C-alpha cells in the first residue's frame, strides 16, 4: 500500500495580484465600477418608475371613476363635493405617503449597494 502524496503547484510563491475594493473601482471609474453604478441607478430608476406608476393610476383613476359612476359627481361629503373631498383627502396624503415610501426604499437600496461594495 502506498502512502499519501501531497501535490502542490510550483507557482505557490508567485506574486498575487492585489485585490482592489469595489469602492476603489467606482472611484477610479473603471468598467467594473461603471457596472456597479449602473446597477444602483437601474434599481433606483425602477423604484421611481413604480412609485410614479402607482400614483398616476390613482390620479388618472379618479376621473375614470367619476366618468363611470356619474352619481358620485353630485354626492357631497360633509358639505364638500365628493370629487373635491377625494382630491384633498386622498390624493395629497397619497403623494406624501408615496414620497415617504420612495425615500425609505431608496435609502434601503443604497444601504444594500453599500453592503455589496464593502463585501467585495
From TrEMBL:
Note down the stretches annotated as region Disordered.
1-20
Keyword annotations of the record: Membrane, Transmembrane, Transmembrane helix
List membrane-spanning regions.
47-69, 81-103
Name of this protein: DUF485 domain-containing protein
Segments of skewed composition (Low complexity): 1-13
Amino acid at each position: 500500500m502506498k502512502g499519501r502524496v501531497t501535490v502542490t503547484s510550483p507557482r505557490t510563491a508567485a506574486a498575487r495580484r492585489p485585490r482592489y475594493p469595489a469602492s476603489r473601482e467606482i472611484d477610479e471609474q473603471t468598467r467594473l465600477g461603471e457596472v456597479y453604478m449602473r446597477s444602483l441607478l437601474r434599481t433606483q430608476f425602477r423604484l421611481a418608475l413604480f412609485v410614479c406608476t402607482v400614483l398616476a393610476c390613482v390620479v388618472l383613476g379618479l376621473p375614470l371613476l367619476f366618468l363611470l359612476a356619474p352619481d358620485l359627481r353630485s354626492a357631497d361629503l360633509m358639505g364638500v363635493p365628493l370629487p373635491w373631498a377625494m382630491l384633498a383627502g386622498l390624493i395629497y396624503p397619497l403623494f406624501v405617503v408615496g414620497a415617504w415610501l420612495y425615500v425609505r426604499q431608496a435609502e434601503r437600496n443604497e444601504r444594500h449597494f453599500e453592503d455589496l461594495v464593502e463585501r467585495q
